[in-house]
Automatic annotation (TrEMBL), chain A:
Keywords: Sugar transport, Transport. PANTHER family: ARABINOSE-BINDING PROTEIN-RELATED, DIACETYLCHITOBIOSE BINDING PROTEIN DASA. The lineage of its organism: Bacteria, Bacillati, Actinomycetota, Actinomycetes, Streptosporangiales. This is Multiple sugar transport system substrate-binding protein. CDD domains: PBP2_TMBP_like (cd13585). It comes from Nonomuraea rubra. It comes from the Bacteria.
UniProtKB/TrEMBL annotation, chain B:
Belongs to the binding-protein-dependent transport system permease family. The chain crosses the membrane at residues 21-45, 83-104, 116-136, 164-187, 208-237, 275-296. It is found in: Cell membrane. PANTHER family: ABC TRANSPORTER PERMEASE PROTEIN, ABC TRANSPORTER PERMEASE PROTEIN YESP-RELATED. One of its GO terms (biological process) is transmembrane transport. InterPro entries: ABC_transporter_permease, MetI-like, MetI-like_sf. Residues 79-296 form the ABC transmembrane type-1 domain. SUPFAM superfamilies: MetI-like. The lineage of its organism: Bacteria, Bacillati, Actinomycetota, Actinomycetes, Streptosporangiales. Keywords: Cell membrane, Membrane, Sugar transport, Transmembrane, Transmembrane helix, Transport. One of its GO terms (cellular component) is plasma membrane. It is a multi-pass membrane protein. This is Multiple sugar transport system permease protein.
C-alpha cells in the first residue's frame, strides 16, 4: 500500500474492493445498488433538506446554496441577509463553527464552501492540500488583491514547503499583535510605580520585576495579580516569540525537528517558570476562575495583562473608572530583536473540495472587504487585514486614541511565528509545554530537563505528523 | 377438521411465530447493525491506519498502533490512574448510596423531601455540575475554601495537583443520589418478616443488616458495582471541565492526577489528531473493561445471593 491508500475510510471516491468483476455480477450489483438508492432516497432527501447541503438548486434553478461554517457573532444573520440581497443567486446555509465537525466534513469530502480558518498554524492544512489557493481569484478581484493586504496574511501563504511565501490560502478577518500589554494606571499609582511607557517596549525581565511589585497577597490569597499572561490560552506562541526576539530558531531548517534546549529556548522557559513561582499571575497551577484574565482585570485585581489590540473592545461599555485608567503598551522584548507577532489571526478559507468556489469567493470579498470588515474595523475589536481600513480604527475615547497611536507604531514590528507543516497536532505544543513547565514550576525537574522533555515530546509529534502527511 | 379450520382462521402473523418474532425485532437489529456494528467495524478499521481525522492522506499501518500502545508510558500511566480512581470511587459510591438509602428508609418526618434533596444532584446536567463545582473549588473565591478558612484551614488549591484528584472524587460522590434511589427500592423489597424473625432470634440491628438485609439486596449491589465500574472507567467530562479553562478542548490544562485514560484518548483524537491510535486505545480499553467486568461477574458467585435458584431453572 502506498501512502495514499485505497481504503475508502475517508471517502476518497474509489471503490471499496478492487479486482475483476463479471458483467453479470456488475449488473446484479448495480441493480442492488439502484434498489438500495431508491429505498434510501426519502431518507437522504430528508437529510439533505434538514442540512441544506450545498450543491443542488434550491427553489430556483439558478440559485446556489453556499454552505458556510463560521461563528454566528462574526458572520451575523444581518450580514447574511445583506449578502443574499446583493447576490440574488446565492443562498447561504449557515453552520456554526465547530472544528471537530469541520474535520469530519473535510474527511468525508463534503466540506463547507467557505470556512473559518486560522492563519498561524495553517501550514499543516495547506501541506495536506485542504484549502484552495486564492491568487487566481485575487488576480480578478478589484477589492481583494495582494497589495491590499497587511503582512499578517502572509501566515496564510504556502509555497509547498513552508509558510510565509507562495500563494494565499486564506485571508485574515482581523487580528492583533497579541504580546502587547494593557494596564491599569490606578493600580500603578496605588503601588507608587511609574506606569509603563506607551511608546518604548519594556524587557521581559523588567516586566516580571514590576509584576512582583504590583502583586498584593494576603493570607495565602492573591488580592491583586501584578501581571497576567493569559496562560490558559496557550504558551507556544509567546515562547516562540521570545526565542525569535533573541535571534534563535524554533525549528530545524527542514521544519521536521525542534530543539528547546538552546540558550534562547531555555531563557524563555525559565522566564515562565520564574513568573509562575513568583505567583504574580494566573498559571495552570493557580488558574484564573474563568480561565481568562479579563474578569480579574476589570475587577481591578490585575494590574497588567498581555493581550492584543482587540482587548480594547472590552472597555467601551465599562465604567469611566476603567476607561480613564487603561492604557496599551508595546510588546515586551527578550533580547535585541523587536518582534511583535500575532499568535492566531482568524480568517477564512475555501476548502479545496468546495463545490461552489466562485460563489464562496464572492462571500470572501463581501466579508473581508465589504460592510462586515468595515464594521469590524470601526468597532476596535481587532486590527483589519486591509491596509486601507487601518484609519477606521476608533479614536473617540482617550484610551482608544492612545491605543491607536501605540498600535500604529507597533505595526512595523509585526513578525511571523514559525510554522511547521508537520505539527498536525492542533494543540500539541501547548499541551506539551504546559505539562513540562508545570513540572519545572513544582521543581520536580529543572528547566534544562523540561527543555529536553519538551524537545523529545514535540519531536515525537512532528514525526507522527510527518508520517501522516507523507 | 375443526382444528384445521380453527388454525386457518387465525391471523397469519399468529401462525408464523418465528416470522413475527423477526419482524418485531427487526427495528432493533437494523438499528444495532447501522448504529453500533457498522461504526464499530469502521472504528476497528481506523485503528489500523494513521488517519488524522481530516485529510485523505492516510495509509494502513497494520497493528502498529496496538504495538505502540503497549509501550506508551503515558497511556499506561493514565490507565493505572483510572483504575485507582475506580477502585476508590466505586466503593464510596456504592457504600454511600446504600448508607443514604438506609437513612432515608427510616420513618422520618418529611422523608420524601429528604429523598428529593439527595436525588436532585443526579438530575443536574453533568456540565452544569462540573462548572458549579469548579466555582466551589476555586482557590480564592470558592465557597469551600471560605468555609475551611473559618476553621483556619487553607486556602487549598483544589483544582491543581495533587488535590485535583480529591476534587474529582468529591464531585463524583455528589451524584450518589442516583444509586441511593435504586438501593432504596431494593431495601423496600426486603421482606420485613425475615428481619423480624432474626430480631426475635436475638440478632442486633447491625447483625440483621449484615446477615439478612445485605444478602437479600446483594443482586442490586452487584448491579451497582458493575455499572459503577464501567461508568468510572469511562469518566471524561468531569476531569476536562474541572481543568483550568473549563473548556473541553483544553486537555493540556488537565492536572496530571486527573489525566485519566479517556482524557488521554481525547488528547490523541482531538489534540494530536491521531484517530488511528485513539481508536486502538479504545479497543484495548474495551478489552480491559470486559476483563474487569467478567472478573467481577465471576466473583459475584461468592457474595451475591439470589432469592431464586438459578441453577434449578436451567
Amino acid at each position: 500500500m502506498n501512502a495514499h491508500s485505497e481504503f475508502p475510510l475517508v471517502g476518497g471516491g474509489k471503490p471499496m474492493f478492487y479486482g475483476r468483476i463479471s458483467r453479470r455480477r456488475l449488473l446484479s450489483s448495480s441493480a442492488l445498488l439502484a434498489a438500495g438508492a431508491a429505498a434510501a432516497t426519502p431518507l437522504l432527501g430528508a437529510c439533505s433538506a434538514s442540512s441544506g447541503r450545498s450543491g443542488g438548486p434550491s427553489g430556483n434553478s439558478k440559485t446556489v446554496t453556499l454552505t458556510v461554517m463560521y461563528k454566528t457573532d462574526e458572520l451575523t444573520k444581518a450580514h447574511i441577509a445583506d449578502f443574499e440581497s446583493k447576490n440574488p443567486g446565492i443562498k447561504i446555509n449557515f453552520v456554526e463553527y465547530d472544528s471537530t465537525r469541520l474535520n469530519a466534513m473535510l474527511a468525508s469530502n463534503e466540506p463547507p464552501d467557505f470556512v473559518r480558518a486560522v492563519a498561524v498554524g495553517s501550514s499543516s492544512a495547506n501541506a495536506q492540500e485542504l484549502y484552495t489557493a486564492l491568487d487566481p481569484y485575487m488576480a480578478k478581484s478589484s477589492v481583494l488583491k495582494p497589495e491590499h493586504l497587511l503582512s499578517v496574511n502572509d501566515s496564510f501563504r504556502w509555497d509547498g514547503t513552508r509558510s510565509g511565501q507562495g500563494p494565499y490560502y486564506g485571508i485574515v478577518k482581523d487580528w492583533s499583535q497579541d504580546a502587547t500589554l494593557w494596564y491599569n494606571r490606578a493600580l500603578f499609582e496605588g503601588a507608587k510605580i511609574q506606569p509603563l511607557s506607551t511608546t518604548e517596549p519594556i524587557s521581559y525581565d523588567e516586566l516580571l520585576e514590576i509584576g512582583k511589585k504590583l502583586t498584593k497577597k494576603s493570607g495565602g490569597k492573591t488580592q491583586v495579580y501584578g501581571l497576567g499572561v493569559e496562560w490558559a490560552w496557550g504558551l507556544s506562541a509567546p515562547i516562540m516569540m521570545m526565542i525569535l526576539q533573541q535571534g534563535g530558531q524554533v525549528y530545524s531548517a527542514d521544519l521536521t525537528e525542534t530543539d528547546m534546549t538552546t540558550p534562547e529556548a531555555l531563557r524563555a522557559l525559565r522566564w515562565y517558570v520564574d513568573f509562575a513561582q513568583a505567583g504574580v499571575g494566573p498559571t495552570a497551577l493557580d488558574p484564573a476562575p474563568d480561565g481568562a484574565d479579563l474578569s480579574l482585570f476589570l475587577a481591578k485585581r490585575m494590574a497588567i495583562t498581555q493581550d492584543g489590540y482587540w482587548y480594547g473592545g472590552n472597555f467601551v461599555e465599562e465604567s469611566d473608572e476603567i476607561k480613564n485608567n487603561v492604557a496599551m503598551a508595546p510588546a515586551p522584548v527578550m533580547g535585541d530583536k523587536r518582534i511583535s507577532p500575532t499568535y492566531v489571526g482568524w480568517g477564512a478559507a475555501i476548502p479545496s473540495k468546495a463545490k461552489h468556489k466562485d460563489e464562496a469567493w464572492k462571500l470572501m470579498e463581501y466579508f473581508m472587504a465589504g460592510p462586515p470588515s468595515e464594521e469590524r474595523a470601526k468597532s476596535g475589536w481587532g486590527i483589519p487585514a486591509l491596509k486601507a481600513q487601518l484609519t477606521m480604527l476608533p479614536q473617540e475615547l482617550p484610551y482608544q486614541k492612545q491605543a491607536y497611536q501605540t498600535q500604529q507604531a507597533e505595526l512595523q514590528y509585526a513578525g511571523q511565528l514559525p510554522d511547521s507543516p508537520y505539527m498536525v497536532a492542533s494543540d500539541g505544543w501547548n499541551t506539551v509545554l504546559d505539562k513540562q513547565l508545570q513540572r519545572a514550576i513544582k521543581k520536580e525537574i529543572t528547566v534544562e530537563q523540561a527543555g529536553k522533555a519538551i524537545t523529545d515530546e514535540v519531536n515525537k509529534l512532528l514525526k507522527q505528523g510527518k508520517d501522516q502527511i507523507g | 377438521m375443526a382444528t384445521e379450520r380453527a388454525r386457518r382462521g387465525r391471523p397469519s402473523w399468529k401462525r408464523h411465530s418465528s416470522g413475527t418474532f423477526y419482524l418485531f425485532v427487526s427495528p432493533w437489529v437494523l438499528g444495532f447493525a447501522l448504529l453500533t456494528a457498522l461504526p464499530l467495524g469502521y472504528a476497528l478499521a481506523i485503528s489500523l491506519t494513521n488517519f488524522n481525522g481530516r485529510s485523505d492522506r492516510w495509509r494502513w499501518v497494520g497493528l502498529r498502533n496496538y504495538a505502540e500502545l503497549m509501550g506508551d508510558a503515558e497511556a499506561i500511566a493514565s490507565l493505572v490512574r483510572t483504575l485507582a480512581y475506580t477502585a476508590i470511587a466505586v466503593p464510596l459510591m456504592v457504600a454511600g448510596g446504600l448508607g443514604l438509602a438506609v437513612l432515608l428508609n427510616q420513618r422520618l418526618k418529611a422523608v420524601g423531601l429528604f429523598r428529593t434533596i439527595f436525588f436532585l444532584p443526579s438530575v443536574v446536567p453533568i456540565v452544569a455540575m462540573a462548572i458549579m463545582w469548579k466555582l466551589i473549588f476555586n482557590r480564592d473565591a470558592g465557597i469551600l475554601n471560605a468555609i475551611l478558612e473559618k476553621i483556619s484551614i487553607g486556602p487549598i488549591a483544589w483544582l491543581v495537583d495533587p488535590n485535583a484528584f480529591y476534587a474529582l472524587i468529591i464531585l463524583t460522590l455528589w451524584g450518589l443520589g442516583g444509586g441511593m434511589v435504586i438501593m432504596l427500592a431494593a431495601l423496600q423489597g426486603v421482606p420485613a418478616e425475615l428481619e423480624e424473625a432474626a430480631r426475635v432470634d436475638g440478632a442486633t440491628r447491625w447483625h440483621v443488616f449484615r446477615h439478612v438485609t445485605v444478602p437479600i439486596i446483594s443482586p442490586v449491589i452487584f448491579f451497582q458495582v458493575v455499572t459503577g465500574i464501567i461508568a468510572s472507567l469511562q469518566i471524561i467530562i468531569q476531569p476536562l471541565l474541572l481543568a483550568q479553562t473549563g473548556q473541553v478542548g483544553n486537555v493540556g490544562e488537565v492536572p496530571e492526577t486527573t489525566h485519566l485514560y479517556m482524557v488521554q484518548v481525547y488528547q490523541e483524537f482531538f489534540v494530536n489528531s491521531r484517530y488511528g491510535y485513539g481508536s486502538a486505545m479504545l479497543f484495548v480499553f474495551f478489552l480491559v473493561i470486559l476483563a474487569i467486568t467478567l472478573f467481577v461477574q465471576r466473583s459475584s458467585r461468592l457474595w451475591v445471593h439470589y432469592t431464586v435458584d438459578r441453577e434449578a431453572d436451567r
